[in-house]
Specification:
Blueprint (H helix, E strand, L loop, with lengths): L1 H48 L12 H7 L3 H14 L3 E7 L6 E10 L2 E15 L2 E5 L14 E7 L6 E2 L5 E13 L7 H15 L3 H8 L10 E5 L12 E9 L7 H4 L2 E3 L2 H6 L8 E3 L2 H5 L1 H5 L3 E7 L5 E8 L7 E2 L4 H10 L5 E6 L6 E7 L4 H6 L3 H8 L21 H11 L14 E2 L10 E2 L9 H6 L3 H20 L28 H8 L9 H12 L3 E3 L11 E3 L3 H16 L14 E10 L8 E10 L6 E6 L2 H4 L3 H12 L1
Parallel strand pairs: 6-14
Antiparallel strand pairs: 1-2, 2-3, 3-4, 5-12, 6-7, 7-8, 7-9, 10-11, 12-13, 15-16, 15-23, 17-18, 19-20, 21-22, 22-23
Amino acid sequence: MKKKWMLPAILVAIILLIGGGIYAYIVNAQNKEAEALQSLREQWLEALAEQDFDRLPTLVTAASLENTGYTEQDFIEKYTNIYSGIAISNMTYTLRETDEWLLDYTASFDTAFGPITDLPYQAKIVEEGDAFKIDWTAELIFPDMLADDKVRYTVAQPLRGEITDRNGVIIAENGERPRAGVVPGQLGTGETRTATIARIAQALSISPAFIEKQLQQNWVTDETFVPLKTLPTNDTPPIDGVLYDKIASRLYPFAEATAQLIGYVGKVTAEDIEKNPALSANDVIGRTGLEMTFDERLRGQKGGEIYIESANGDKRATIIQNEPQHGETIQLTIDTIAQQSAYDALGNAAGTTVLMAPTTGDLLALVSKPSYNPNLFVTGISQSQYDVYNNNEDKPFISRFSARYAPGSTFKPITAAIGIEAGTLQPTEALTIPDMKWQPDNSWGSYFVSRLNFANPVNLETALVKSDNIYFAQQALAMTGEKFIGGLAKLIFTEDLALPLAMEPAQFSNDDSISSDILLADTAYGQGEMLISPIQMTSIYSVLANDGQLAYPRLVMDTESKTKSAFSPETIATIEPSLVKVVTQQDGTGHVLNVVPNVAAKTGTAELKATQEGRGIENSLILAYDTAASKYVAVSIVERHQEVGKSAAELLIPVLQQLQ
């Protein structure tokens, strides 16, 4: 009986094994097919997102390219030209899941005219040989597109935003400049033509070779106006053979007075376009200063239309159409009257002046001198003009208001405030200082602290009025480095300030510590390793004009004012009468400012030399502020003032008088 049942059972088992194997084979084949289809889809989308157009021909059927009349190279160039022409970037996509042999997805991407979102794409997938390929049509470029269609676009340029001062006075604006050019048919022939071109080249400070190059452009005819040079001013000097038209241009009406702050614009280069595909050949971007920092906000967003054009020139479909978004107006805290006054007051000196409103931190003037005319750079500066600037040893391109200097004796009121609050400096206590140089003991070797004006004994008032280095060195040693650094920590040392300017943080030493008594003594009167920019100085010194509250510097009107408490009002009230006497007393180092009402001041001289012997190069500094209404705190620095023949305080007088 068992034998009768065994045979059928064995047969059933064999059938099941065979069926299971076939099923497994089918499932495995289906899985491989699904994986291959998915891999093809993903490769296509990755190639588009990465704009690796050389990969695309390997993913589509040869027949589909042949049907559209494209070679592989035509195919690659089609995608390359369209994507670069309308600046497609930042592509993202969503691949729809399907069991069919389909490429089915939506794509979103940015263009030069704005974002395009959720465009639907679909194409068949077919077998070609042993592989799956996409049955390509032009609808995979844009929906509704045919193979012989073209993608066209029109551009509506935005207006660049203006930069104004706090009162709405324009500092950087859009306007027109005269452009000099010639009409080829009016130049004559032979030697006459050669001589005419040479004369025009000399008058316009360009080369005859450049003129010839302009005349050889393929669009030029005998009657065409051929532009040669855009002029930096509105002057149009009469030059025989030269005609003028007008061209849109960026204008800087305050020229040298605001150059380092505002900067200038220039035409984009191939390198710029490579970094930012949204740019095109005729665009203008900020090159330096706030024009560069705020370039994206100032430049705005191009408008225009991207559309599909049929082979007979008809518009088949609009892909995107946007109005241009004009650039923002940036309103600064700068007062252009104060800016121009501070610039003019420096005369021929190399230096800088910064004016701040001490209660708000508003920067009213940021001046650096020598300077340059930014209008020359907009129009295309000649090599000879550029060489004049570049070879100037006083470096007119430097923004001195954000460069760091030793503050010298202007820092002494801050040392006094720290000492008073540390409890180690008693303002009325007189120290005996019998000599013009001093050291605590012979452990300092040959190093001495020296002073220029003799007084004995010396209290805080005398030390500030006569600017006594020895007094402040002794006070710093008495309070110790730990307490001195603790007082400095209440200020802005080592902080990155929220300003749209390149500026290193203020430092009191190279490593944020004071490792020796000599360094402590030197730091107390603003030398040693202390480096502070004029902007940072005005912020620190705002405590003197603002009852101990430190105002952070602010340059843009729509940003928040920020202050913090650094010293008590009582401490500042103790110091201020002495700073007034720096000006009012006959022997005060700032007595030259006595022609300005309601001013307190502290002069400074930062000496730069390799040894203690002799006199080194000196920078003259002045800190001054308004005692009546806290209208301003001013810091001005004159480099190598011995060569100028005037101190920073003397040069600042007309600026302070104008601020009254």
